[in-house]
Design a protein that fits this description.
The structure is a single chain. The protein contains ten helices and 34 strands. By secondary structure, the protein is an alpha/beta fold. The chain has four domains: 189 residues; 163 residues; 72 residues, no CATH class; 104 residues, no CATH class. The chain has a 14-stranded parallel β-sheet with strand order 1-2-4-6-8-10-12-14-16-18-21-24-27-30. A 13-stranded parallel β-sheet has the order 3-5-7-9-11-13-15-17-19-22-25-28-32. The longest helix has 33 residues. The radius of gyration is 38 Å and the shape is rod-shaped. The N terminus is likely disordered.
Length: 558
Amino acid sequence: MSNDNQSEKKTLYNLEAIKLFLQGKDAWNAWVKANPEANVDFSGVDFSLCPLTKDLEENDFSGFEFPKGKVAFYGTKFGGGSVAFYGTKFGGGSVSFRGAQFGDGNVSFREAQFGNGAVVFSGANFGDGDVSFRETQFGNGKVTFYQSQFGDGDVDFREAQFGDGDASFFAAQFGDGKVTFNKARFGGGNVTFGGTQFRDGDVTFGGVQFGDGGVTFSGVQFGYGIVSFFAAQFGEGRVSFDKTQFRDGDVTFSGARFGGGDVSFMDAQFGDGILDFSKVELKRGRIDFLPTKCGPGKIGFCSVNFDGDIVFNPADVSEAAAIDFSGAKIEGALSIGNVETNCVVDLRLSSIKHSIDIDNPKIGFKKEHIENGYEPIVYRHLALLPYRRAAKHDAPSCFRRLKKLAKDAENHEKMLDFFAKEIQSDYGRGITGSTLTMFLLYDYLSDYGRSIKRPALGLAAFTVIYALLYSMLSVAGQGDLADFWGGLAPAMTLSIAHTLPFNFGSRFASADVINYLYGESSYSWINTTLHWLTISQGIIGGMFLFLIGLALRNKFRS
């Protein structure tokens, strides 16, 4: 019994630990077997200055086994060479590399095994060599890399396995090398990368499996490399990318699966790369993009499968190349209520169970680029009016789908808006020739039945024009007997009478004014011209009155 107590209290410390380490793996493991409960303490050791270790090119603990007590490398300086803990087995006690300083050589903990005690790398400083925790197994204790610093070498956590304790990389800093957690597995604890800074290397979490604890990347700053969560699996906890900054590399969550917790990208900022959420699955929870900022890259949600709600109301997607929800299956609610973009939102072949929130979006479409710097006024297919063609040939079908969704939501105003853009985006493609000219007139004169102001101004303008024509015709018919300016007032009366022919008093006013202006004219062409003028004014006036009535109907339609 006394021997057991001595074993539990024994600590292999500093110089003794160094001497035993230098004897090699077999001697070390034999000592551990004889002292299974001991503590091991290398705290404060400087391998580069210690006379026994300063000439070592590598500090190699590969295959070493540590006892069940505490293991401390607190503040240890490993020098400039490589450091290897390849296949090292730690006991059940806590393991601390807090404040440890590694040089510019490679550092490997590949296939190392930690027990259920806490594993601490807080404040550790890794040099510019590669760092590997590939296939490392962590126990159920807390694992923390809080404020640890990695150099410009690659950092590899592929297939690492974390237990049910919390895993924290909070405020860690990575260099320009690649950082990969592909196929790593986290247990049921919380996982946080909050405040972590990545530089310009690619960052990949492909196929990673998170447990049911919360996962946070809030405040993370990614560099200019690719950021990938391809086929990542998230558990039932909340997932947060709030205030995360993505640079200009592509960002992909394609094929990722989220559990029942909410997913938030609130105040996140995306750069110029592609943002890919294609084939993402979301169970029950809600995913928020409010008020996310997106760059000029393509935003893809095609073929997603959401059982929960999605709120896509980013603060700025005005420069996005495309917003693609084609083939999406959304059982919850979809809100794009405040989207403002110059590219069409593609919801073709989508299945949306609930009514879509489209009260306030401003969705446009990009015009075709004109080569060689020519003026963007194009005359094509015998069109008599200028127009610019839509850059995407499928824009009309995208607006057609939006129009149907607006109709299903009984939003008449947005239905008219999407109908107008459906036609406008088909100029010069499906709509050509005289048909195109008619649609252009409808567009310019009434904004597709939505403007009262345009046809009202047109009606007023043509009323004045015809008044001038009537007065000029009077001068031509009666010579010096008629004064052009003096006849302008009665000519205006005649013009208004033919503009508003449904007014009962217009007939009498028209007859009196004609007799006053033209009298017994001996020129037959005067009467013929007058007839053609009144007929044409009646047609044009009726057209403008119809457009005004149509706009009033659309405006007050419930």
